[in-house]
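Batch job 17 of 40 flagged for manual review because the log was empty.
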Amino acid sequence: MKATDLSSDDRRALLAVARHTVCAAVGAPQTGSDPQPAADLPSNGAFVTLHRRGQLRGCIGTFTSGPSVVATIREMAAASALRDPRFYPVGPDELDEIDIEISLLTPLEEIADPQQIEVGRHGICVERGFNRGVLLPQVATENGWDRDTFLSQTCLKAGLPPATWRSGGLKIEVFEAAVFGEKSEGLR
């Protein structure tokens, strides 16, 4: 089974796992038991993104295969709430304003030609030396970026000059993601 084969019930259950994990991580009172999705896929990696009032509040992910998608979602949800270095940790008082989105990833695939990148389909990972930047596929479409802007912004996220992708010597990898969230699933 692939991530794109998930039923609405499984997507909702994975979102419930993420919500339960975020609440527990920030010390909010819990009611009920930890949810368990019917399908537990092998994990190719995942990102958990938190938004507060429509603004990014935390996003952490991994391309590493975990023992299961549920284990990966739990780990990334807690990290997004507490360890995104761009933000202070989420507090229990924010939970009512937080929306959760999950991106289940395909494996990274190195490309030789940046023209292979399809905006809206691919996410990008760039790497040079110790610098690495990743942007999920939905980031480009949400911001109305074309391919060149998407590549430039990914370089900036890696701490590199925006035109680095044009000069060569940069490892560029793409991936796809099955993206779903509390809003798209009618949970918020």
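Reviewer: the log was empty due to a logging misconfiguration, but the result itself is present. The chain has a mean pLDDT of 91. Unflagging and moving on to job 18.
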